[in-house]
Design brief:
With 163 residues, this protein is of the alpha+beta class. The protein has helices at residues 2-17, 26-46, 49-53, 73-86, and strands spanning 56-62, 70-71, 87-101, 104-117, 126-138, 144-153. The longest helix has 21 residues, at 26-46.
Length: 163
Amino acid sequence: MLIKRCGWLLLILAGACRTSAPSADAAAVRQIIETNNANAARWYAAGQIDSIAQLFALDAWQFPPNSAPLAGRDSIASFWRTATTWGQWQFDLRAQDVVTNGPLAVERGQFTLKFAAGPSSPIPSAEDRGNYVVLWRREDDGAWRVVWDAPVSVVPLSPPAAK
């Protein structure tokens, strides 16, 4: 009897979790994401942080490697306004897969990064590469914006300096 009740409960919950919004066309959403990624790479390189900021939802989170997370569009923009004063950032973002469900899309991809430090940079020039997962959301204005941005480097950290 308990098993039968649990089965019915699972069926009811599964039905309640289904979205009534039609699923977005995955190919069309992927094209939008790839266009946004190409724009982002150009904007980071040019230091156009106001343009970058518009790719993020107001409640977005960005998880930079080896750093505290950045919470909110304003925080993300503030960080990158400062970071672009340190030197030249060159990103290459390549979507490997995009899965959609209604107003949400998850992008899995690979990135490369080249940073050329300027004369007053607090960090040295560096190169990185890795994988990332981005959660996108179609906002009320119809734009797809980043909600969560999580890059994961595959480059090992340098060992600590010998004392």
